[in-house]
Amino acid sequence: MIRPTKGKTPRRPVPKKQLNNQKDPVGVYCRVRPLGSEDEECCVEVISNTTIQLHAPDGLKANRNGEFKETQYTFKKVFGLKTTQKELFDDVAKPLVEDLVHCKNGLLFTYGVTGSGKTYTMTGSPGQGGLLPRSLDMIFNSIGPFQAKRFVFKPDDKNGMEVQNQVDALLERQKRESQQSVPKTPSSRQKLDPEFADMISPEDSSKAEGVDEDSSYSVFVSYIEIYNNYIYDLLEDAPFDPIKPKWNGTGTPLRHNTEFIPPQSKILREDQNHNMYVAGCTEVEVKSTEEAFEVFWRGQKKRRIANTQLNRESSRSHSVFIVKLAQAPLDADGDNVLQDKNQVNVSQLCLVDLAGSERTSRTRAEGNRLREAGNINQSLMTLRTCIEVLRENQMCGTNKMVPYRDSKVTHLFKNYFDGEGKVRMVVCVNPNADDYEETMLVMRFAEMTQEVEVARPVDRPICGFAAGRRHRNQAFKEELSRRLEERGGPVDGEPPSALGQLLQSLPQLPPCEISDPADDVTFPRVIECLEKRLKIRQMLTGEYNKAANMLKSMLQDLDGKLISKENFIHDQQGKLGEKDKMIHNQKNEIDRLEKKSKMLEYKIDILQKTTNIYEEDKRVLQHELETREQRLQRELSEKKRMEARMQGFVTDEKLRWQKECERRVNAKELEMQNKLWVKDEKLKQLKAIVTENKTENRPDKPQRPSREKDRAPAKRSASPSPIPTAAPVRPMHRRSHSAGAERWVDHKPLTNVELDTVMQPNVPNAIKVTAPSEKALSKCDKYMLTHQEVASDGEIQTKLIKGEVFKTRGGGQAVQFTDIETLKQETPVAPSRKRRSSENGPNQEQNKDGDWTDVETRCSVAVEMRAGSKVGPGYQHHGYPKRRKP
Ligand code: ADP
Ligand code: MG
Predict the structure, then answer these.
(1) Residue of the CA atom closest to atom 1 of ligand 1
(2) How many helices (H) and strands (E) does the chain have?
(3) Over the stretch 339-382, which tens digit does the pLDDT of each residue have?
(4) Residue 23 near residue 455 (C-beta atoms within 8 A)
(5) Which of 346, 345, 337 lies closest to 166, judged by CA?
(6) What residues contact residue 249 under an 8 Å CB cut-off, 6+ apart?
(7) What one-character-per-residue DSSP string does 825-854 give?
(8) Model-level pTM?
(9) Mutation test of ligand 1: which of 81, 89, 113, 120 has the most ligand atoms closer than 8 Å to its C-beta?
(10) C-beta of 273 in contact with ligand 1 (< 6 A)
(11) Best residue among 30, 31, 33, 434 to mutate for probing ligand 1, ranked by most atoms within 8 Å of CB
(12) Atom of ligand 1 nearest to the CA of 113
C-alpha cells in the first residue's frame, strides 16, 4: 500500500488538515514549587487537584484598598509542593512521548516568572531529572531495539529526511570517523559525565506501548536558544579556524585558548510543507538516553559560557530542545529499512524552557541588557497576543491575523497552532508573596491559553507489508545459525578444501622411483595402488552422483515449496489489495458522509438561525398583538360606556318625543273635534231649518261644550260631541216605550271590516241589519249606523252614527241623527313596538311597567262615556290594532 502523503517533515502538510477536524484544547498544568525558606510569606493555596487560589499579601492589601481579590484559577491539573518529577512526567510528558513514537508531534513548554521552577521542571537537578531527561529515556526505552544503524537516516538541509542503505551508511560512518570523532554510545552509565549522571535515573523508566516493531527508528536532537529575538544553535561546532583552533568537538574551549567566539544567529525558514525550521541547525543523531543527554548538556554548557561571556541575563532566554524521531518501515524481508524516502515519517517533540515572564521593571537590567530584556519580554508578549487572537478567532469565528511572525518563538511554533499536534504547558508558580502580582498575570494568561484548541494529530496509515517482519527475520537468522552449528557449522578460519580431504582419504601412492628398467616390483605396486584409487574414485563418483541427485531433488523440493510460498504470498497480496480497495472505498464513504454531515450541520445552522429569526418575529408580533388587544379592550369598554350613555340619551329623547307627540296629537284632536263640531252644528242647523219647515218645532241651539269643562276629567276626551245637554231639539212623536228599554237598529253594512279590537261596540237587544230596513225601523226607536272610512293618516276610522227614529206623517219612518261617535285605530309608534318585541327580554319588568302605563292611559281614554249624554253606548278606542290595514 502506498501512503497518500509523505511525512518527511514534522508537521502534516496542509491537505491532511482538512480531514482532521477534531480539536483538543491546549493542556495547561500548574506546578507550585515549595517556598525557598520557612519565613517567606505564601500567597498561593492549592485548593484541589485542579484549582489554586491566590491570596493577596497583607502589605499589598493594605496599600490598595480591596483592589486585590482572592481569585481562583482552574487548570487541567494542579501539582502541589510534594509532586515528584516522576508524577509530573507521567501526567504531562508521557502522552507526548507516546504520540512521538506514533508519528505525532508535540510541544511542551514551561512558563512562569524567574525562579518559579521552569528549569527545575524541564531539566531537573541531580537526582531529580526533569521532563527532558525522562522523555529521552522513555523514547529510547521504547524504540531501543528497533533503532536503525547510524546514518541510515540522514537529515537533508531542508527539514526533510533521507534514507540510505546500510552499506552507504557504513561508508559514511567510516568517512566521518576519519574526519572527526563521532560520539559513541557509552556502554554503561558509569562512563557518564558525573555532572549529569544521576539526572537520568534508570529506576523509574517508562516505555511507550504499541511501538511498530516493523519499522526502524532514529533519533535526532537539536538544541537552540532564542535570546533578544535571535536564534543560536547550541550544538554548532565552532567555525573551523585551521590556524587558531579554539573549540574542541564537545564545545569546550581548548585549554590554551580561552578566547571566546560569539555565536552566529540562525534564521527561520519554511519547508515545502509550510513548516518552520531553523535553517542550518545542527541535528545530532543519538542512539541512547545517555548520548542524547550528553548532547543536551554540551549545549547547556555552551549556553552558560555564552551568557557569562556576553554578560547576558540568562533568565531572559528561551531554550528549545527538539527531539526528532525518524521512522521508516522495514522491507518485505524485515531485514533492511525500506529504501523509499516517501515512506519516512518524522515526528518531533519540542521541549521549551521559556524566559521568565516577569516585567522588565522587576529585573535590575540597564542599558543594552534592558533593551535586550525588553525584546525578550516582547517575544512573550507576542506569545500572549497570538494566544489571545487564536482564542478570539476560535471562539468568535473571526479570522484575525495571528501575529506569529512578530517574534521568533511564536514563528517557530506557528505550525503547532495552525497545523496539528498536542500542545501542553506547565505553568510554574513560586508561592512567594513577592511574586504575587507577576503570578497573577501568569495565571490569567495560563487560564486563557486553555481555551485555545489545536487540531488533534491523525493516525498514520500502516505500511503495506505484512506485520511481524522483523520478528520473522530474526527467527530465521537464529534458525540458520543453529542449523549451521548442527552441521558442524562454520568452523573458525578457512574450511578445509574438499579436494584436500578427498586426497587425504585416498591410499597413499607407494614410492615409485624406478632405478632399474626391469623393476617389476615398483610398477605392479603402483598399478595396484592406482587401481585401488580408481576403484575408490569410481565409488566416490557414485556417491557424489547419488548425493548430487539427492541434493537436486531436495532443491527441487525446496523450489516447489518456494513457489507455493510465493503463490501464497501472491494470494495474500491480492487479498491485501482487495482489503486496501475496501479500505479506500470505506474511506471515500467516510469522506462522503463527513461532507454530508458537515452539509447537514450547516443546514441545521441555517435552520436554527431561521428559527431564531422567526421566533424573534413571533415575539414581536405577539407583543404587537397584545398591545392591540389591550387597545381593543380599551376601545370596547369605551364603546360600551358610550353605548350606555347613548342608550340613556336615546331613551330620554324618546320619552321626551313621546310626550311631545302625545301633546301634539291631543292638540290636533281637539282642533279636529272642534271643526267637526262646527260642521255638525251647521248640519244640525240645516236639519233644524228643514224640520222647522215641517214641524215648526225647533230644538234649542246646541251649546258648544265648554272646553275646560270637558277636558277637566280626562286628559284625552272622546270626541267632544255636539250633543245638547237637553232632549232633542224638537221632540217628535215617539214610539211608546218604557223608560230605559230603548230598541236599537244596529246597521252594519256588509262592506264593513271586522276589527280585532278588544273593545267592540255592542248594543244589547238591537235588531242587527246589514242594509236599511223599514221593517226594523218600525219596530225600533233608535238607529245606529256603523260606518267605516279611511282617515287621513291611512288608518281605518269607524264612525257610529246614531239617531232617533220618528214616524213620518206619510206612515214611514225617519231618522234624525243626533250623535256621531268616532272609533279610531292608531298604528303603534316605534318604541311601543320595540317594547312589545322584547316582552320576554331582560327588561320585562320595565316593559310590564310600560304596558301597564300604556293600558292605563288607554283605558282612561277609551272607555269614557259622557255623563248626561243620552246617546247610549259608545266610546272612542285608541287601542292598537291586532290587524293591519285591510
Ligand atoms: P526558573 O527556571 O523558573 O527561573 P528554577 O527552575 O531555576 O527557576 O528554580 C529556582 C530554584 O528553585 C532552583 O534552585 C530549583 O532547584 C528550585 N526549585 C524550583 N522548583 C522546585 C521544586 N518543585 N522542588 C524543589 N525545588 C525547586
Ligand atoms: Mg530557568
Answers:
(1) 115
(2) 19, 26
(3) 888 889 999 999 999 999 887 554 455 555 555 555 557 888 99
(4) yes
(5) 337
(6) 180, 181, 237
(7) --PPPHHHHHHHHTTTSTTHHHHHHHHHHH
(8) 0.56
(9) 120
(10) no
(11) 33
(12) 3
Strand-strand pairing, 215-227 and 284-286 = antiparallel
**Beta-carbon count within 10 A of 675 CB:** 10
Q: Is 315 in the pocket of ligand 1 (CB under 6 A)?
A: yes
299-302 — which CB contacts under 8 Å span 24+ positions? Answer: 299/223, 299/225, 299/234, 299/235, 299/251, 300/123, 300/223, 300/234, 301/251, 301/252, 302/234, 302/235, 302/251, 302/263
- Protein residues within 5 Å, CB atom, of ion ligand 2: 118-119
**pLDDT tens per residue, range 241-272:** 444 444 444 444 444 445 667 778 899 999 88
List the single range of 251-265, 290-304, 755-769 with lowest mean pLDDT.
Answer: 251-265
What is the total residue count of the chain? Answer: 886
The grid cell for 193 is 559525565
Ligand nearest to the CA of 358: 1
Question: Helices (DSSP H) in 397-435: which residue ranges?
Answer: 408-412, 414-418
Closest atom of ligand 1 to 122 CA is 6
pLDDT at 872 over 80: no
CA 115 to ligand 1 center in whole angstroms: 6
Number of Cβ atoms within 10 Å of the Cβ of 74: 15
Question: Does residue 115 line the site of ligand 1, with CB under 6 A?
Answer: yes
Question: Looking at ligand 1, which residue's alpha carbon is closest to its atom 10?
Answer: 115
> What's the grid cell of residue 753?
271590516
Q: Collapsing DSSP states into helix, strand and coil, what is residue 550?
A: helix
The single residue listed with the C-alpha cell 549451521 is 484
Ligand 1: nearest atom to the Cα of 36: 12
Contact of 800 with 875, CB cutoff 8 Å: no
Grid cell 467516510 in the structure block, residue: 590
- The alpha carbon of 453 and the centre of ligand 2 are apart by a number of angstroms equal to 27
Phi, psi of 27, deg, nearest 5: -80, 115
| Contact (Cβ atoms closer than 8 angstroms) between residue 529 and residue 510 | yes
Nearest ligand by distance to the CA of 31: 1
DSSP code at position 144:
G
Identify the pLDDT of residue 843: 44
What mean pLDDT is reported for the chain? 79
Q: For ligand 1, is residue 369 a contact (CB within 6 Å)?
A: no
| Contact (CB, 8 A) for 410 and 441 | no
279 in Cβ contact with 269 (< 8 Å): yes
Q: Angle at the Cα of 35 (from 33 to 36), degrees rounded to 5?
A: 110
Ligand 2 centroid, distance to 359 Cα (angstroms): 16
Does ligand 1 lie within 6 Å of residue 34's CB atom? yes
Burial of 576 (0-12, 13-18, 19+ CB in 10 A): middle
Q: Output the DSSP codes for 437-506.
A: HHHHHHHHHHHHHTT-EEEPPPPPPPPSSPTTHHHHHHHHHHHHHHHHHHTT-PPSSSPPPHHHHHHHHS
Ligand 1 center–CA 117 separation, angstroms: 4
Place of cell 482564542: 391
**CB distance 452 to 384 below 8 Å:** no
What pLDDT is attached to residue 375? 52
Cβ–ligand 1 distance for 119 under 6 Å, the answer yes
Check if the beta carbon of residue 408 is closer than 8 Å to that of residue 229.
yes
Pick the residue whose CA is nearest to atom 22 on ligand 1: 33
Using a 6 Å cutoff on CB, does residue 125 contact ligand 1?
A: yes
Q: Using CA positions, which residue lies closest to atom 5 of ligand 1?
A: 117
Q: Are 433 and 57 in contact (CB under 8 A)?
A: yes
From the CA of 31, give the closest atom in ligand 1.
Answer: 23
- Alpha carbon distance 353, 375 (integer Å): 17
Cα(380) to ligand 2 centroid in Å equals 15
